[in-house]
Each structure stands twice: as structure tokens, then as C-alpha cells.
Write a structure and sequence with these properties.
alpha+beta, Outer membrane efflux proteins (OEP), 2 domains, two-stranded parallel ribbon, 11 helices
Length: 417
């Protein structure tokens, strides 16, 4: 087994060792990546494809097997004997071997190696796609948990206040409209929590599928892991990285190499192969115990593989046009995502400055003053809803920053963010 594969499995086992103690898997980004690369069935299947292609290189290196032909005298009509193959009978043997000319075997080895390279590139592409989805869903899962914890605490607080208000309303000490207004705030928050919980389940399902686990996953991260996505990298730098590392572009380049190899191979197929043989005939020829040798060759008068050669030339032109189209598509996508990334960075930096401890202090003060009847129900509910909206928007900004950074990582085919 590949040493790197063994290392990933060991690291995954170490990271995964605490699962038995709890139904919830608490995992950080590095542990998630290790578990993903060791466990994901799609990656394992793709790695098997690489090994299968490597086996075909071994096959391409093999020479043609010789062919042994035998002729035995079944019935001697003169002597009325079956299988007259003794000293006075007849038997013949021939050994044939095909000698392939024009470097066909060498071309087949090169094409098999090219298929291995293609399988490796497709594996890398799959890794990048799944890693993008994993990181995006993990950070979404983390942000959703923070909001859900906040909503749960607020719902518990509102439930307590509602119970108290219900008693006072029944006694006639508090107007019914204030109780109704408070119930409205509770229902809105409960609905917001339900929608967020639905998103949370979707993110969790995606993470569980990629990591191939059944237990709930709790993502452990810090604010610094979000801010690390802020890097001052120019578009020209990203463009150079994308041209050198973009998975789809590398696959397209490899496809062109394969078409070029096939064109050369089709030209070599026009060169006839030579078949050589040696034979022995006991009594069936002009001489007894006759030994012969010879060869055969196809004469390329009509079929010189013209159609396949011409088709391969057109395929080569096709790949050139496809590469130009793909290059344009990638650069356009990179430009748009780079612009979106810069926008999310600006929004994140602005939101981080706006949101500070003043929010927490204020909400705590408003709650206490509301319970002391120093703040009206309208002021309390309005601030309460505004505070939750601010938390939700901040969460979206953080998620968008991670998403835009990971999108650029996938586009350039390298972890720069």
C-alpha cells in the first residue's frame, strides 16, 4: 500500500478515536481532511482506477504469444489404422510469431502511461471538488451551530418571560396586546430557528456523506481559521496558478497528448507487421522429416489506415478548439470569482468592525431592563429582532468569505486560501 495512504489512515484513526466515547464526532479541519481522504468511497474508487490503468501499462509491455499448430494423421486409409502418427505415420508442427514493426508496441506503452496520468488527474480533480464541498459545508455547519445555540438560549428566555407575562395578563396587570406582541416575537424566532435547522441538516448530510460517517458531526474552528481566507493575492498571480494547476485544464492538455499519441499510433498501424514461422513435417511433404521456415506480410495496396489517420487529425484540431474555449471559460470564471472574493473580504472586514462586544452588552442590558419594566415591549422586541438579524447577516458574510476563498482554491487547483 502507498505510504501516504497508510499515513492518512493512521491519522484518521487517531483523529477518529474519540468517537466511541460520544455519538457526536467533534472534528477540526485537518482531521476532517484526513478522514475524508482515507474514507471517502468515491476517492477509493478513483484510486482503484489509477491502479487498473497501471496494470494496463504492464499489459502493454508484453510481447505477442507464439502460436503452436499441430496436424496429426487421424486415419490411414491404406493400412486401415487410426492415428497413424508413429515412425511410419504422419504428423506436422508449426510455430508462428508475430513481429510488430514501426514501434507499435512502444506507442501502446506510451498511450497506457498516458491513461495512468489521466486517471491521476481525474483523481486530483475529484479531490478538489469534494474538498471544496467539504470545507464549505463544514464552515456552514459551524456558523449554523453558533446561531442555533443563540436561538435556543433566546427561545428559553422568551419562554420564561412569556410564562410570567401570561400570569400577569391573567391578573389584569399587563395589557393583552403586549403578551400577543411577545408571542409574535417568539413565533418568528421559532420559525427562523426551524429554517436554520433545515439548512443545518442539509449541511450535516453533505459532511456525513463525504466523510462516510453516520454519527452527527460538530465542526471545531476558530475565528482565525475564517480570517486566514483573507490574503492579498493579485489576479495575475491567480491566473498563472490556474494555468499551471487547474484540474480541468490539465485534463484537457492530457487529452490533447492522448490524441497526438493516437495519431502517431494510427500512422504506425499503416506499417505492416511480419509473421515468421518454423515448421516440421514428418511424411506429408516432398521429403521425410522436413523442416521449414518462412514469413508472411500484409501488402498495403488498399488499406493504409487512411480513414483512422484522417479522423485522428480532425480529433487533434477538435481538442485545440476545446482547449481555447476552456481557457476562456476558466479565465472568465476566475475573474468573476475574484471580484466576488474581494467583495466578500470587504464585507467581512466591515462587519467585523461593526459587530463587537457592544452587541452582547446591549442585548443583556435590554433584557434586564425589559424584565424590570424599564423598556417597553415594542423597544425590546424591535431590538431583539434587529440583534438576531445582525447575527444572521454576520454569519452569512463569514460563510461567503469561506465559500469564495474555497471557490478560488478549486479554480486554480491549489490551496492558496
Amino acid at each position: 500500500m502507498n505510504p501516504k495512504k497508510i499515513y492518512l489512515i493512521i491519522l484518521a484513526i487517531i483523529s477518529f478515536g474519540t468517537i466511541k466515547a460520544s455519538d457526536v464526532i467533534k472534528i477540526n479541519l485537518q482531521q476532517a481532511d484526513s478522514l475524508f481522504q482515507a474514507n471517502n468511497y468515491n476517492l477509493l474508487a478513483s484510486s482503484m482506477n489509477i491502479e487498473a490503468q497501471k496494470a494496463l501499462v504492464i499489459q502493454a509491455r508484453l510481447f505477442q504469444n507464439p502460436i503452436l499448430s499441430t496436424s496429426l494423421h487421424v486415419y490411414d486409409t491404406t493400412n486401415k489404422k487410426l492415428f497413424q502418427i508413429g515412425p511410419t505415420g504422419e504428423k506436422a508442427f508449426q510455430l508462428d510469431e508475430l513481429i510488430r514493426l514501426g514501434g507499435k508496441r512502444k506507442s501502446e506503452i506510451e498511450m497506457a502511461k498516458s491513461d495512468v496520468k489521466m486517471a491521476e488527474l481525474e483523481f486530483q480533480q475529484l479531490v478538489r471538488q469534494l474538498k471544496f464541498q467539504l470545507h464549505s459545508d463544514l464552515f456552514a455547519l459551524g456558523q449554523q451551530k453558533i446561531l442555533l445555540d443563540t436561538y435556543n438560549k433566546q427561545l428559553m428566555l422568551l419562554d420564561t418571560i412569556l410564562t410570567s407575562y401570561q400570569v400577569q395578563t391573567d391578573k389584569g396587570n399587563i395589557p393583552l396586546k403586549e403578551l400577543v406582541r411577545l408571542k409574535g416575537a417568539y413565533l418568528k424566532l421559532s420559525n427562523d430557528r426551524s429554517e436554520l435547522l433545515h439548512q443545518n441538516y442539509e449541511s450535516l448530510a453533505n459532511v456525513q456523506t463525504i466523510l462516510q460517517v453516520n454519527s452527527p458531526v460538530e465542526f471545531l474552528f476558530s475565528e482565525s481559521e475564517i480570517s486566514k481566507y483573507i490574503k492579498n493575492i493579485s489576479f495575475d498571480e491567480l491566473k498563472l496558478e490556474a494555468l499551471a494547476n487547474h484540474p480541468e485544464l490539465l485534463i484537457a492538455e492530457q487529452e490533447k497528448i492522448q490524441v497526438q499519441q493516437n495519431l502517431k499510433y494510427q500512422k504506425k498501424l499503416a506499417i505492416p507487421d511480419v509473421g515468421v514461422f518454423t515448421s516440421y513435417d514428418q511424411n506429408g511433404s516432398a521429403f521425410t522429416h522436413e523442416f521449414n521456415a518462412g514469413f508472411n506480410i500484409s501488402l498495403p495496396f488498399f488499406n493504409r489506415n487512411q480513414g483512422n489517420i484522417k479522423s485522428s487529425q480532425f480529433r487533434l484540431n477538435e481538442t485545440d478548439y476545446k482547449m481555447k474555449a476552456m481557457n476562456m471559460e476558466i479565465m472568465t470564471s476566475l475573474q468573476n470569482n475574484y471580484s466576488f472574493y474581494n467583495q466578500t473580504v470587504a464585507e467581512y472586514q466591515k462587519a467585523s468592525k461593526l459587530y463587537n462586544q457592544d452587541f452582547e452588552i446591549t442585548i443583556k442590558g435590554m433584557t434586564e431592563n425589559f424584565q424590570k419594566r424599564n423598556v417597553s415591549i415594542i423597544e425590546f422586541v424591535d431590538f431583539f429582532e434587529a440583534y438576531n438579524d445582525a447575527l444572521s447577516e454576520l454569519s452569512k458574510v463569514k460563510s461567503q468569505l469561506v465559500l469564495s476563498g474555497e471557490q478560488l482554491n478549486m479554480l486554480i487547483g491549489k490551496d492558496l486560501y
